[in-house]
Amino acid sequence: MNISDQIQLWNQIVISVLDIQVKRVGRGDEIRDYVTPASMFMFIANGRAELWTNDEVWISERFHLIHIGKGKRITVQSADFLDIYMILYNASLPASALREFHMMMQTDNPFMKSWAVSPSQPLIMLEMLETMLADWQQIDNEQIDKEKKIKDVHELRRLKAKGEFIRFVHAALQERTEIAYVPTLAEQVVHYIARNYRGMISMEQLAQQMNYTPQYVSRKFKEQMGYSPLDYTIRLRIDLARKLLCDTEATLQEVAAYVGYPDTIYFNRMFKKQTGITPGEYRKQNQYVGSKDTMNWSDLSIVAPHPALYHLNGNDIHYQLMLDGGNDMANSKKNLLAMALLCLTMVTSACGTSSEGTEGNSGAAKSIQLKTEAPANIKMRTITTALGDVEVPADPQRVAAPAFLGTVLALGVQPVASDFLLMESPYLEGMLDGVANVGDSLETLVELKPDLIITNINKEETVDKYSLIAPTVAMPYNSFETIQEEMRYFGDLLDKKDVAEQWITDFESYTSKLRGEVQAALDEGETVSVMQEYDGKVFLFGPKSGRGGRIMYEILGANPPSTIPKHMLAESYYEFSLELLPEYTGDYLILTTKSTLEELQADPVWGNLPAIRDGKAYLWNESQSWFRDPIAVEGQIENLANWMIEIAKTQ
């Protein structure tokens, strides 16, 4: 998600500040395996540190601002004394927010993402943090009793802390828009090692990508990190081997091969060199025997465990920092390894095999088969998607449609899976037998064994995950200029070309008559606006949108007011100021709203619009207007066209 979309979502959400704290970390200390119970901002001040969040790493020099999503596992290793400020918060969309925003949150939630920036004005941000912290500590220290006055003071201080947090977020996002964060050389090397440590590490290849010599990269890395890239790789491998020896029942040969040492004898030698004992002796001394909370992590090397083995804890209450001891992983050993292997399979390109979970102490883990290649007897062909050409089955039988559900159904294909936002369509009632709601659950999708997945998310990392399950076609909703183009594309994809052409013929025959009647009813120069209002906000919709935009502009040939800038109608939606409402409202208004016409006519802003005042507004709610697939359009178009024709007759 780009920064503009993120800023737009920040303007829509409801925010709750959960906690504000600061932690002083000594030289050489570390925060190990801290699971974020909520989204958070972390500000590292006054020292140098290495910070891991799952599969990402940052090297902090003096000041560093990092945003971290809920459920991430953090390890911070300090080279100096430093202060770590943390603001934990919760962000949620109100139910009344546009469905487009809910879909954005579902498919690419920015509040769950990690990013970092070296602030250009760190002392200003530090001052904000100190102010917020002081206010929050007052809240924590207050003795709240039943007297209303004391409660009011308490809530006012919470409100002030929330206001300061909004100012802090504004400053953070402003930094992101003005400064493109470039990872340091050390961060780039660590990223490369973390992704390639199980195979051959080629400093020559990495140096070439960075336009440096291998000698320069190695020298600068050692200056920043204190040891060479080779030493870092060895420590990373041995650290991971320690975890596997403690937490799993894998053989020494399996552990050695997994961490990048196919020669077990060499692995034993390297392990003993790093730890002082053999792998077998280490397992006997440290193997899991009870609560993981008793395990001491202080003897581990300074390199963070490989992030793919992190187990995420969704506990929203426990968020104490764990310093040099304490680990909240409480699942069974076998279940942990199954989760680790599945996670690695989903995030690395090197994995071409399936991963299995076996029954552990906490219950049975289901066996999961991830298919990367089609069976040899399935005929394949190439189709173009938003992310390039993809090999797909020539005649798919088990289609998962997290996107374009109505289009797939219009072609006579019954999908095995979809998303609940699409399945809520009133126009699909009675058509969804056998269609499972998978949401964003990859596990549920795997169980359904699709042979084709259709998504509107054109992010490579998401498509890569889907592609490990089945061939995946990514096409954003705005990819098609017309509904006919959309039907032909998916008719080709699903081996339903004849069905698509027949649908188009019937649809054009039916809608051409309606188009002619609407055009005849409108006076020359009359215009139509398509909008939605909620919570004091107004949004415009164009020909690629739902809410009636596709129907009015693309199919029925109505024109928007010429005062509306073209770029506002080019996207799915565009928010604008209420001050521009009279300028952007046409002679006719298609409005998605929860208000009645009488309520709008009584409103001082809306009531002054001629379309509202004269009753030339078609009002409907979002559960009816949001859908813009072929089946929904068939269910909407007659009512919209007939309404406009009847209203025009009365004028």
Give an account of the 3D structure:
- It is a single chain.
- With 651 residues, the protein is α/β, with parallel strands linked by helices.
- The chain folds into four domains: 176 residues, Regulatory protein AraC (Jelly Rolls, Sandwich); 154 residues, Homeodomain-like (Arc Repressor Mutant, subunit A); 116 residues, Rossmann fold, CATH 3.40.50; 149 residues, Rossmann fold (3-Layer(aba) Sandwich).
- 42% of the residues lie in helices and 18% in strands.
- The chain is built from 25 helices and 19 strands.
- The strands form four sheets. Strands 1, 2, 3, 4, 5, 6 and 7 form a seven-stranded antiparallel beta sheet that branches. Strands 12-11-10-13-14 form a five-stranded parallel beta sheet.
- A hairpin with a 2-residue loop joins strand 8 and strand 9.
- Helix 18 packs parallel to helix 25.
- The radius of gyration is 29 Å and the shape is globular.
- The two termini are 46 Å apart.
- About 13% of the residues have low confidence.
What brief labels describe this structure?
651 residues; 42% helix; 4 domains; 7-stranded antiparallel sheet; Rossmann fold; Arc Repressor Mutant, subunit A; alpha/beta
